[in-house]
Amino acid sequence: MTSSATTPFDQSHSFAEVNGVSLHYVLEGDAGKPTLALVNMASHNLTCWEIVLADLAQHFQILRFDLRGTGKSGWGENADFNFSQYADDLAGLLNHLKLDTAFVVGVAYGARTAAQFGLRHPQQLSGLGLFDVALTPPVDQTEQGALGAQATALLKDAGLVVPQRQKYWRFYEDRDAARKCHTAHEREPDTTAMIHAIGAPTLVACGEQDMNLPAAKHIANQIPGASFAPMAMTGHGSPFFRPALFAQLIRDFIPSLKPSG
Question: Domains of the chain, with CATH numbers?
């Protein structure tokens, strides 16, 4: 799915062969700073993070990538469209780039992948960030639109700028592969009962106008030592409501990260 006009999506960056697929990624910033790996929310590609890059670039080396089947990444067998595989793909990408550890931050759907990474690859984690997270299928999103409108109205009443969302954040190369990628929640069980095993420093954050708020609070309570941050005037997809607050929470968590090496 592409546009006739040139957009940031039309720019190809780097590719790595990982677990049988070609993953499209961008690694940028000072290699002497902590690595921040960002995991996209559902139906988005790596361009969506442009809204927070300026606020994070001075503090991190930043890795963005397209999940298999989305953006410009390739895709494999139907059975490989699951959160465990997405987490293994990120681990393989870190290995390919010779990055020992990363602060892995996922939003919404991406937080499911980040949680699996925390369970499957703890040795590669300096920290974990789970934003707008719920782990229980099936996903009920019926009230998210109305809650998002509430958050937008609150932001406007407070005199805060509501960011403009870009269509190209959701572009992809193959419709069927993108659909398979973003229906993994229909095929995987609830993993909430497993997350007590996560040992990395963990930040859980969620918008106060998000249906996932109760689930996010519960998840934070289940992970030993996790911090929880409610985000006022924020709906589902928190960086797209309050990018500056999203970036601030990530920056403020830096002292909690495990040192590399």
Answer: 8-256 (3.40.50.1820)
